[in-house]
Amino acid sequence: MSQRVSAGVMVGREEPLRALAAGFDLARQGDGRLVVVGGEAGVGKTRLVGEFLDRADGAVRLQGGCLELGEAVMPLAPVAGILRQLARDLGDDRAADLAGPELAGFLPGRPQGASDPQWSGQLSMFESFRAVLERLSQDGPVVVAIEDLHWADRSTLDLVTWLARNLVGSRVLLVATYRSDEMRRSHPLRPVLAELGRLAHVERVELQPLTDQEVAELLTAIHGRPVPPEIVSQVADRSEGNPFFAEELFAACDDERVPLTLRDILSARIDGLPDAAKEVLRIAAAAGRRVDHRLLEVVATLGLDELDAGLRAAIDGQALVPDGDGFRFRHALLQEAVHEQLLPGERSRLHRAFADALLEEPALGAGGADSVDSELAHHALAAHDLDLAFRSLVRAGRRAHALFAFSEAQTHLEGAAELRDRISPEAAQEAPAVWELLRAASHCSRHGGDPSAGVGHLKRAIGTLDPVADRVVVGGLWSELSESYWMNGRGDDAVAASDKATEMLGDDRTREAAEALAWRSRLLMLLGRFEESVEPGRRGVEIARELGAQVELSRAQNSLGTSLGALGHLEEGLELLRDAVAIADAAGAGGDAVRGYINMTSTLRTPGNDVPLAERTAREGLDYAERHRVRGGMTDWLRMELVDVHLRAGRLRGAESVLLQVRTGWTNGINGQYFHTSSAWIDVIEGRYAEAEEHLALARQLAPMIRDPQAIGPQVGLRMLISLGVGRPEVGDALDILEPFIGDANTYPGLVLVARVAAAAAEAGSEDAREALARIRSLLAEERVGANDVLAANLDGWLALVDAEVARVAGRHDPELWRLARDAMDERGYAEQAAYCRVRLVDALGHAGSGDLAAELAAAHRCASDLGAATLLDDLDTVARRHRVKVPGAPVQRGLAGLTARETEVLGLLAQGRTNREIGEALFISEKTASVHVSNILAKLGVTNRGEAAALARDLGV
Length: 958
Description:
The chain is mainly alpha-helical.
């Protein structure tokens, strides 16, 4: 009925356009946003985005799309497309200046920067891309449209997720589209959409089918005049409101009949075109959604005049539309339909022709010459050229690795490994071995966020080799497998694999042996087995020095120095660590240098107890990381070491400000757990127990099998503080968890918090808690025997605090013991522990009737207030009530102030005359816990017995 296929105006999308316009207004004001537009194929996502971009006045408008290449993958295609657009719009030099070294490789003819992907990581590239957008936004808002996320590679999905979290406060609006009908249960986009949906500054827009009235408006816009109602009704019914289907149905129908299926429609469209146009479409469909004009000229067997005529007919028939220097199908569904009609032999010949053309002129590739190998692999696989496919996959893997697209590099290398035994003998002569490909894929999986895949790759690699003839290589692979096991939380397997590596390498004086020994030393150090760590560390240092293997030397010294420091040999340990940093720096291994700063900071803080120097070292390391562009998880770990320094010193706002700079806090593994554990400490000190529990749960979820005492100790300590804060002081399995790591000083703060809980429970009559407290005292005392001066000084401080708790449980409120404990915590820089000791000192002075009570009360209140410790302030108020003294600046209160929700429940039951056993049964808690609650209630209300508490509760209506 109509010569036109699509309407000149958009119909029925006012609400989605308003949502995009609202996001744009917020971004213009500096509130960066992500709008995700979903909908079935043909519903109008691309049209909507195009219409919105046309209306985004005053904005820099950037567009990139994801490519579907079957078994091959072109990594980060949207980034490449956007940077190439900037090169066209701003000029090559200006675009290169914006891109910087991390993004240079995406620009035509520009070499990739020489940074080490292992340490700079994807985050470095993500940061650079964000920096490009923010620099562009200095002159006005920026709109970035990324289409077809359902085809996105893993790295692109990670980039979108990362940008969504880190564009808040910028003048950038990110718009992404995807096909909702592609979202099968296992689709990698599904969890990404779920995660994005939890972010406040992300909005989802789901395009709905057009109404029958809107379909009528669409057809009228196409036809130029009203369409007969019976045709409108048939089109609306059969298209089910899908605009693309409606347009195609309408274009294919005559005055009385509408085709039945989309296949009929598209077949009719193609059949109605001239032969030259059909040939052009068949060739273009083999290229993909878009094809370069010059590439068509090379591949097509048509003469230039016939090719031009075919292109003109395809454009006039609105099958193709011009797109820069090439053409694209008006809709992906049309490309898919044409490609499906190709006969197997025809399809293979076309892909062969595209492969030959790209080999002859790589610049014709969709991503330019530098990225042509992904396309070559796609066409070679379709043309059954395994030699070319193998070579292209290997090169594409190396290219992806250089671009920090580790997941895509892994995919390419896995594909090459699968083809390796099927290539010709001639190709095999220069080809990397299967084990080398699998090893490289394992490295990529480690950096790409899926370390579990690396375990399988390394095991397969080991299985392809002869353990006798290839002993050195196999030994090195066992060491790498050990590290992969550790990264997956499999500590026992990591130790067993390390045992195998050192057994195989024996007394070798090879680089593999030095690396394996350096890792073994680090593994045992991470497990808190410091004495065992020293011997392999010293051997690794010796062999690395002998070989001049500087990176391996730095790593061995790093682990050895940390272990020696933990054993109290601070001077030797710190000297080794400082030297390890210098060696790594001279070798250009910036990531290893940052690791040295991490371990120096940790050693200075614990057991060195030099908090100011630890802070200066952490800041020095962060400055180094910035100068050398070392980013990602390693630098974030150093940031969280600085967070620990702030927390220990009681500077909660300082800790929060550093946590805001952490970019990997949501990732699986040790960084994610460290981030959420640190966040939980801030919450628990300030009395936000529900939030602290949520962070603690996330920490466990992100690293469920972690064996590192540096993580386990703080998590147990958090559990104890939460239990006290909510009025349920229960030791549970905390002591059983920490006891195996008693040799690691990182467990002592958590262990003493277990003692704090045990003391509270023991005061309420728990014999088990009393025994746990005695056991803690005994464990620390045993460690003290034979300890050197550094370790003895640390243990003496913790023993002072535990001794004061033991005396309190025994009914001896000895102010002198609490003064010793307070001074020990002050001297070691443990702000929260020192504040707690001050509260207990005030209580002990009250029991002793000391005249120092008022002054110490004021000092304790000032300390807890400066710290922002809500629970300690409540405890101090309770102590003041108990001893009938006034907290400075606060009136003495009677009533429900200070009771937790659980204590209020207990008070209500107590007012009914219930016994502790009955209270416990009603609330599903133990009788001992109910007793603890009752004791706390009496103290907080300032009453002396249950009767007075019940009377007060009834007066207050509880």
